[in-house]
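Pasting as-is:
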Amino acid sequence: MISEGEKVPKFELHDADGNVIKSTDFQGKKLAIYFYPKDFTPGCTVQADEFSGHYEMFQKEGIEIVGISPDDVNSHKKFCNKMGVRYPLLADVDKIVSEKFGVWGKKKFMGREYMGVMRSTFLADEKGKIIKVFQKVKPAGHAKAVFEEFKK
């Protein structure tokens, strides 16, 4: 997993509308990049709902939010429409960006091992430097914790 002090890895992914979003699009802005396992699952729904609910608060402080999962553009579009997500959800279908950030790996659930996204959030400053890494994120209350970290 990338660490605090490192630069945000360069990436190019499609959002829910099929637009190409690049890491360089966020130069000069504070950025919260959160990785989540799958659209429409309970934890991911809570997380998206909380970031959406606090979206205007983040915007007032000049903080951009980006969610990334291995789901495809169509899944993201449905999820955004159902959940009212107003920030980009990016489709990392090939897991290339997840691997760059170090969040794609072996997981365990109910005694079963499988490969998946480890729910994590990376906060970056205006220069693209990672200033905080949240690992093993619990969805409930996370958006507020991210906001408070930026306010420090």
